[in-house]
Amino acid sequence: MDKNKELLGLLTQDCRRSAKQLAAILGESEAEVKNRVAQLESSGAIVKYSAILNDEMLDRDSVHAMIEVKVTPQKSKGFDAIAEEICRYPEVKSVYLFSGDFDLAVFIEGKSLRSISLFVSEKLSAIESVLSTATHFILKKYKVEGVVTTKTGGGRLPVQP
Amino acid sequence: MRDFVSKRIREIAPSGIRKFFDIVSEMKDAISLGVGEPDFGTPWEISEAGIRSVQRGFTHYTSNKGMPKLREEIARYLASRYRVHYDKEEIVVTVGASEAIDITLRAVCDPGDEVLVPMPSYVSYAPCVTMAGGTPVGVECREENGFIVTPDLLKKAITPKTKAIILPYPNNPTGGIMTRAQLEDIRQTILENDLLVISDEIYSELTYGGKHVSIASLEGMRERTVLLNGFSKAFAMTGWRIGYACAPREILDQILKVHQFTIMCAPTMAQHAALAALETGRESNYEAVEEMRAEYDCRRRYLLHEFNAMGLKCFEAKGAFYLFPSVASTGMNGDEFASALLKAQKVAVVPGSAFGKGGENNIRVSYAYSLDELEKAIERIKKFLNIGEEV
């Protein structure tokens, strides 16, 4: 598992690395790396590979929000059934169960403020066991998936002794 | 008007790196593998300690030697990491290890004294010897020996005028290190010829596959060694300019004289940050340093593999963050290769000749860059060498 930790770390940084590059970095054979990546993929340990976008650069008019949801847990199913129901909406990007003042955190992406309002008022609130919601719009992203998106610090001189 | 500049200074050749720096700085979208400092930022708690010290009013001089608490912590660090034991009175805190090199040489050199400078090595040693009034004598190390100093090389270079030797390991630019056994090998020659060792151990935390050994930990060596180190490389603190020199009082008190008349004391803010670096390091068992080292090691393995695969024979460097591949197989020397590569593919590496004799056919490649950047650079170098992806 320790070896996988290094491999997974490298893939998390950049999943486009080839097996050849990974093998060179880890000091292993290409076949071994390929084999382990395949195993991690088929076991579901690696869920998927995706790109992290910088919305500001792309000039995308998308609106992101986190919605706190309080629900009544259902008999024998707890929070699962309701969470699974919320997951079905394509505009919902992530759903997490939280400890504390609310139960579910729903991360959502919409084209406009209005589309998110509609989702909350017409879809989310309409679900029977939803008691209340609180919507927080994301204003600025400083760090996304471990990557700092705002520029900080001075550069280094390109050539030094 | 007469020439106001001292002959001694006029005759020192300018750094060979300067020319490259000017070209690269002008060039758009060049990838540089030419830096000599970590790509990691200073760990936050260290920076914060520096900032806090200013806010709390620690904006005055400290004692010439540096804050006693910092010197105590340095002594503790050296004892636990390298088994070398110094009292806090045997340590002076300097403006980077660079100042430590300068003031040590000025305290040591009389006119006519020869100082052995193993080469290839950091660009400052020989000019600093000259500026101190001594005579630098290059000792050309060989690639087949891993660029280390051997008793044979020493014996050939030693004359009755030889007073000291600079020991620059782990080495910039070759990445070479000297093991305990290899240090033991030269110990006898050093003792027989009654030499002082100026051991620049600035890269001591960056060794791969074995811990750094300080020559001061060898029998009979502590009393004839000036140990130089600093915070730039181990704690990613280059811009803070903070280092230190350690030596027996006999020598240190004289080094201190030079320091107190030129520098007064190292910047107080940087001393506070350095203290935090050592304290948090000790409390966390140097976790941050270890993580950095592991990351460098990944890059090192990757580059070693790539250069050797490209046919640029690369000696297996086990220290610092440089590789020193030979470009002889291309029919070019290091200067020609570096210039052509920069022109054709906009990748900057430093020609080995900038670091003195013995590196004419090599280039210095720094891996103080993210793997992403290294991968891009390698692609370009492959294009330069006309190496395509195999199908």
Describe this structure in words.
The complex is a heterodimer of chains A (161) and B (391). Chain A folds into two domains: 2-42, Arc Repressor Mutant, subunit A (Orthogonal Bundle); 55-139, 2-Layer Sandwich (Alpha-Beta Plaits). Helices cover 35% and strands 21% of the residues of chain A. Chain A is built from six helices and six strands. The two termini of chain A are 40 Å apart. Chain A is extended, with a radius of gyration of 21 Å. Chain A has 161 residues and is of the alpha+beta class. Chain A has helices at 2-13, 19-26, 30-42, 55-58, 80-87, 113-124, and strands at residues 63-71, 92-97, 104-110, 130-137, 143-144, 147-148. In chain A, the strands form two sheets. In chain A, strands 2-3-1-4 form a four-stranded antiparallel sheet. By secondary structure, chain B is of the alpha/beta class. Chain B folds into two domains: 7-41 and 287-384, Aspartate Aminotransferase, domain 1, CATH 3.90.1150.10; 44-283, Type I PLP-dependent aspartate aminotransferase-like (Major domain) (Aspartate Aminotransferase, domain 2, 3-Layer(aba) Sandwich), CATH 3.40.640.10. Chain B is built from 13 helices and twelve strands. In chain B, the strands form three sheets. A seven-stranded mixed sheet of chain B has the order 2-8-7-6-5-3-4, with helices on both faces. Chain B has a three-stranded antiparallel sheet with strand order 9-12-11, with helices on one face. In chain B, α3 crosses α10, α4 packs parallel to α10 (268-283) and α5 (96-108) packs across α9. Chain B is globular, with a radius of gyration of 21 Å. The mean pLDDT of chain B is 95. The interface between A and B is medium-sized, with 17 and 30 residues.
